[in-house]
Protein: GTP pyrophosphokinase rsh
Organism: Thioclava dalianensis
Amino acid sequence: MIDVEDLIALVRNYNPRTNADLIRRAYAYGHEMHEGQFRHSGEPYFTHPVAVAAILTEQRLDDATIITALLHDTIEDTRSTYSEVTELFGEEIAELVDGVTKLTNLQLSNAASKQAENFRKLFMAMSKDLRVILVKLADRLHNMRTIRSMRPEKQAQKARETMEIYAPLAGRMGMQWMREELEDLAFKVLNPEARTSIIRRFVGMQKDSGDVIPKITADIRALLEDEGIDADVFGRAKRPYSIWRKMEEKQLTFSRLSDIYGFRVITRSEMDCYRVLGLIHHRWRVVPTRFKDYISQPKTNGYRSIHTTVSGRDGKRVEVQIRTRQMHEVAEAGVAAHWSYRDGERAQNPFAVDPAKWLASLNERFSDGDGDADHDEFLENVKLEMYSDQVFCFTPKGDVMKLPKGATPIDFAYAIHTRIGNSCVGAKVDGIRVPLWTRLKNGQSVEVITASGQRPQPTWLDIVATGRAKGAIRKSLREEDRGRFIKLGAELARVAFEHVGRKVTDKALRTAAKTLGLPDEREVLARLGSAELASSDVLEALYPELAARHSDSEIEPSRSVLGLSADQSFTRANCCQPLPGERIVGITYRGQGVVIHAIDCPALEEFEEQPDRWVDLHWKSGQHPPAYTATMKVTISNDAGVLGHICTLIGQQKANISDLNFIDRKPDFYSVLVEVELCDAEHLHRLLTALEAESDVAQIKRIRDLSRKP
């Protein structure tokens, strides 16, 4: 526990005129009142108020706030009373302690209408004296730092409350450092696995490339010294929760995420801010769309800074924030800058904004209502102002829709109803027609325009920000894919039936469906097309003897093509690698015989004016051996055992790997060209479908390379 003299020394660092005697008396009184009380960790309870006071000294707050921290639990948890605190320490401190006590007694995690009323009380208390919430935030910060001594269920409750209420409140008041720490401490409780994974990946990245922070910091300092600019440069890695939130919002892997590192340049004047910006943009390549000037256009809480993202060493993206010392004080302290002291005097910062005016205006705006509906309206409007990572928009009828930051009119439409989202063709924001990819802002009114027959587009998946919208779009696209699978299944069925000398008919497919226990022939075709059902299963259901006999005799590769003359030899084109079951055509080459191309091979364009070189060919019906190569590009996660698992899976599909080449390596994934030996097009389709279903496979596609044409 911090000794009283050490605490006074912390205050004297920024306020030499502090009333040390009053702090000593408050320290002694608090220690006496909490005598015999212990925290869950077993420490004396008074260690907590002292730690809260120490946190507030970091914000250079006045004596009354420091003393309130020392006494903030006395009225609630000890025999102390309001009148006694007033008598000993004065009316101002007694009111502050009482205000913190009332905030502590609020249950901020109840049902919505109750929560709305509690928010109203919270902001009313804050409006009377904003130092109340400064003490409460420091109190919550220390409790979160020591939360491991609580029961698991209590930890989860406090962490959720911190994430939903106190962290956004700290951010809205401009205290970004406190918001970040509160979020990360709550994240550690609510999702420890994700946090540990991010830390592990970050440590791994540092082992691979070294700690780039001192290197980039030195680069920036050298650049400024050469130009004679006096400024301080600081660098840091962002907190795990900040990294995780960006990964979730942007759907990016850790290795693809930019802005993991942040750097700040603190200048002596506003003009130097723009000089530094010019130097950095001249020295490093700027990332488009990642530049923001909050000096010329400050945020509503007084925040001023220039943000830019550049490609630094080794192509790594880093964010650089440029601001003056006074701007930095507001950026770090937020509302505390309004109360902070320097050399015994209240600091006069021209950029500090008093959020009490904002809070008072909210209370004034909603002080007349007394029903649940009014409470709900108050709550929504408070969140509208406070939660910077959420967007609250209105329907034409005035209903509030809560969406994540970055949401679009499509997200808004799906938030209303899936049917509205599916049929969305346009939107009006505040009465003006806007593109569907427009990012919505707080307080906007959105009108969704729909049309019958409209269906979701695949590109919407890259636009929307909500899980609900993404799920509904994917479901609709799957329904559309069913039509494509049916068409593909019909072609696969045709080839399979021809292999056994039969013709596919609706009646035959209906019979197969009945035998296989499927509802109808369309379901048979859909499952064939999606590789859930093999054509051999359909044949066996109808013609078990033919299927068995046909499977016993394989067609020799040298005799697999029909349409050649007796003296003609053939080879498969490397550019398109045609497989049995695909439509083919032959092109004659002097000295090479006939080269077989897939009918849709782009290489055939150069022979359009040479019809005498074309040979009409087709594959012989029957069972082909796995002797026909095809090339796939597989992108898989870079984890131990993944490549071996993929190779095993290929073998399980009766395909042999004949060649394998790495073409792109990244920390989180790598791409491989895999050449496999297959029987026919259906075999390839089954293999692609099986691999695509694997969670470790990010992407897979067949490669046709014109650079390998004859």
Remarks:
- The first strand starts at residue 231 and ends at 237.
- The domain at 210-346 is CATH 3.30.460.10 (Beta Polymerase; domain 2).
